[in-house]
Amino acid sequence: MAWVTVRQATELTGKARSSLYRDMAKGRVSYRTEADGGRVVDTSELIRVYGELRQGETPERDGLRLPGETEESVSEALISEIKALREEVAGLRQEMQAMRLLEHKPETAETHPETSRRWWHWGKR
To answer: What is the pLDDT of residue 23?
Structure first.
């Protein structure tokens, strides 16, 4: 059969990675070590220990659609959501601009360096 990595073995068996390593350490699952130090397990060994392996479920789930759901309706829903988000971003930009205007404080004579007294003038009156 085929040799698979520990990650692939977790996907095929549905077991946690720690469970696989524990079973390897206890000798329940035999494995071999690759040149790079990674462990690989034979799929027949996985079947012997854990039973039938899971097959790729993703293509089956991706092919399923809700009743009445078409690509056109999905794309229309996405386009309307994008438009709503763009309107929200434009409104937030306007609010930010208004906040910047409120926070803007023109310089007064007290804060202007030419008209304020220098530190060496503080003692003189």
So the answer is: 92
In one letter, which amino acid is 94?
Q
Residue 4: strand pairing partners: 41
Outline where DSSP puts E strands in 6-93.
32-33, 39-42
Q: How many residues does the chain have?
A: 125
CB atoms inside a 10 Å sphere around CB 73: 11
Q: Which residue numbers in the chain have pLDDT < 70?
A: 1, 56-69, 105-125
* Residue owning tokens 């079973």: 23
Global pTM reads: 0.44
Reported as a single tens digit per residue, the pLDDT across 114-125 is: 556 666 666 665
Beta bridge partners of 3: 42
- Residues in Cβ contact with 15 at an 8 Å cutoff, skipping those fewer than 6 apart: 9, 50
